[in-house]
Amino acid sequence: MDDTDQRLLAALRRNARASHSDLAVMLGLSRTTVRTRIERLQASGEIVGFSVVTRADVASDPVRALTMIAIEGRGTERVTRQLSGFAELRALHATNGRWDVIAELGTDSLEALDLVLSRIRRLDGIANSETSLLLSTRKSSG
Length: 142
Description:
Elements: H1 3-14, H2 20-27, H3 31-43, H4 55-59, E1 63-71, H5 76-83, E2 89-94, E3 101-107, H6 110-121, E4 126-134
Antiparallel strand pairs: 1-3, 1-4, 2-3
Helix pairs in contact: 2-3
């Protein structure tokens, strides 16, 4: 699986009902390339199915965190593309100041969060990170 497959999977995680045409525009690919890659990922068993995600599913991540990330040099686009492929990523925000991006993460356990944080820290170009657990949500727009 290459970087394009990772980006395609991330787009499908956000909206598995997106049309091949919409995915092609989002990813800068042809519609035929998107269709062929999805078929190949299904045939290889990488994609095993599609499902509906309800508001309760998204809100039910028992462990949620914000990870502030500093990126070395001009690697922001590459790093954000890699982060977009993480299943645990709920949102990715560009920001100013000390941190370059803030990743909203959701997992089913502290152990799973620890694993994803380790994967993030190992990405080439990550200079520094700091994570805060979200203990409760008093107001949400979702």
